Amino acid sequence: MSPPLRLVVRLTPRAGADRIEGWSEDAAGRPVLKARTAAPPTDGRANAALEKLIAKALGLAPSKVRLASGASSRTKTLSIEGADPALLRARLGGPAASSAD
Questions:
Q1: CA–CA distance, 23 with 2 (Å, rounded to integer)
Q2: Domain 5-93, CATH class in plain words
């Protein structure tokens, strides 16, 4: 089995709807996926909504997408099992995620 992929996401909670907005770059020039969730950033609700949003976009079970870091930050790293970079490019467009080490 291949190692989980890592996907960096910039999350905006309390948006009008759950949606993926495309790719951007962080201050260091690294690619980040921009996403919004309607859930508030309390009690992990926005993080859980993000996991479900990404899983749905990739056609994976929600249990395959987990928060790896950034629980209280707007920039989060997700660990994604059962996907390869080609799937991420096809479903999310833009740069692919990196393999976890």
A1: 25
A2: alpha beta
